[in-house]
Amino acid sequence: MLALAYDAGLRREELGTVRSDDLDPAQRMVRIRAETTKGRRERVVPYATATAVLLHAYLAHRRTLSVARGLLLLSESHRNRAMPITLWTWSKVIRRIALRANVPQCSTHTLRHLCRTDLARAGWDLHALATFAGHRHLATTRQYRHLSGRDLAEQLPHGMAQIHLWRAQTLAESPSEGGHL
What is the reported pLDDT for 175? Predict the structure, then answer.
């Protein structure tokens, strides 16, 4: 669940309503139905190869709980065996993991935010990020572009290369003016 939530950047409600037939294991894609999204926009998003391996193992295990198609994530508790897990259960799972990892501010939405931030740092275009996230407005997507000082320092040489080249050429061409720019 964690890997799929992160890879696909899913909201709690989206993860909790993924159906077994929303998965396309051959293409490593998951369909997020419009009726389950905040913006009521359907999207199809990829997930990583490592997540595909975990998901394959989970699907095999899921078949021991239920062979019926339906919501993907099923409870293993004796009380609710083979029933879909609730959104509250997912929140509690994340809360327990966060407290064990000594990261109390972590929530179900943190995985979505981390995915978007990591994609932004990897150089994804803002429009691609918005489409992936299911956002209608780019302003919503911009919040994921939190760049650290390290990120900015790494980008500076690339962004300033043209300017620095121009300065060097200009200085080389006009040494008589004292090279002041």
Answer: 60
One-letter amino acid at 47 equals: Y
**Which domains are assigned to the chain?**
2-146 (1.10.443.10), 148-181 (no CATH)
User: Closest Cα to residue 77, out of 87, 60, 95, 89?
Assistant: 89
- As a whole number of angstroms, the distance between CA 2 and CA 5 comes to 5
E strands, the chain, are 23-24, 29-32, 43-46
> Which residue matches tokens 């990583």?
48
Q: What is the structure's pLDDT at 118?
A: 86
Separation CA 130–CA 136 (nearest Å): 7
Name the range with the highest mean pLDDT among 36-40, 60-64, 175-179. Answer: 60-64
**Can you tell me the distance from the alpha carbon of 10 to that of 19, in angstroms, rounded to the nearest whole number?**
14
Cross-strand partners of 19: 71
Q: What is the pTM of this model?
A: 0.72
